[in-house]
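TL;DR need structure tokens for one chain.
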Amino acid sequence: LKPLWLKRYQAQSQHIPRAQWQEAPSKAQKMAFVKVLKNKAYFKRFQVKPRRRREGKTDYRARRKMVRQDKNKFNNKKYRMVVRFTNRKCICQIMYATIRGDMVVAQATSGELVKFGIPAGYKNYAAAYCTGLLVARRVL
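>> reply
TL;DR here they are.
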């Protein structure tokens, strides 16, 4: 005989109705047949999602829409500016996408603003603006 808490746990995991949780009065009464939905055939055909999708880092539909170039501009690079905020600084990059991966053309961090006379505050709105100007100056 199984303890009642174990029966309840197994009943919840197999979706057995609450009426069948209690101890059966006799051995003649058996539990209903529960069909296994995720069997060997299911897992044979299962295709794993890409790693960055599993991690929740990349929305590939939005990325495809962002990176896709117009058909009349074939084989041209579509540049974009990527701004990332870390705990201490702001990072600005000019990038374009290729099949091998994203290529960085130029980058600047707000930590480099020390050279231009800004001693502190590398994560605020003004620092992000200045870092954007700095990376634009490097590209052009």
